[in-house]
Amino acid sequence: MGSALTRSSPFWRLVLAVALLLAALSGRPALAIYPERMVRIVVPFAPGGGTDAVSRTLAHEMEKDLGKSILIENKPGAGTIVGTQAVATSKPDGYTLLMGTFANAVNPSLNAKLPYDPHKDFAAVALVARSFNIVVVNPKSPVRSIEDLIAAAKANPGKLTFGTFGPGTSAHLAGELFKDMAKVNLTAVPYKGAAPGITDLIGGQIDVMFTTVASAAPLVESGQLRAIAVTSVERSPAFPQLPTVAEAGVPGYAAESWYGLFAPAGTPRDVIDRLNMSAASAAQSEAFRKLSINEGLVTVALPPEALDRYFHDEEERWRRVISEAGIKVE
């Protein structure tokens, strides 16, 4: 949080002004002319989901800072590959951006051949926020804690089931990581999204889900689901009573989703810096704070280098889980 505030402070705006002056004196294109027209953020998911909501809120706040409209273009398909490829082949001028997510870090391990290079074809802009999943069970279940879940799984190897949003999704990999680190055997049951999985969890057809906060929070509040833990590194301010999976019995466990802006490789550094500062400011807005509570976000708003390192680390971490679990996308 401190980094974001520092980067949007008057000091950093002074640094940006000095950079503009130096750019002008050196004969490089002046950043002052960017943006001259509408900016487009490609969201590689259908409208209405969490990524769409985060992108639209961020774009609305960035518009105020940049002084130009920002269009959200939804390009779902092939597990985010369609939208991601569209940005990879776009002109590197700062007018076409990608809202990258957890899927971008796992796709290289799930797909033998991608139509783009996840590192060479993109330039990191800003790590906007991280998010976590929440472990939920049926309120009638005897499982009331992570310790109970582990005990039940060990007593009935392979018989307990956990719902996923499909192979390689955050709900799936969070469950696979839990199996690996807790040394238990749970059976994954894939669904076409969170809603049908939660419906079956409420109905007693499956035993547990490592689902998103947005999909589960209202049902937890109404008593239709029981939350037993969060998958984040630290406890969430939104659910202070819930332990993390790590502190509840699986030391070192953490499974996060995230949101980060990328531009096509070759985008001028001064344009990237301008976008980064705008995103950092937008992520500190009141509108984004309200969204963060609903979506279970931890706002970070970090610089390009931080997103680049985080992306590499996430890619390597999930590569091991995917390989050991033998996960494949058909």
Automatic annotation (TrEMBL):
InterPro entries to which the protein is assigned, alphabetical: BUG, Bug_dom1
CDD domains named in the record: PBP2_Bug27
Key words of the record: Receptor
Signal peptide: none
Record keyword RNA-binding present: no
Keyword Ribonucleoprotein: no
Similarity section: Belongs to the UPF0065 (bug) family.
Identification of the protein by name: Tripartite-type tricarboxylate transporter, receptor component TctC
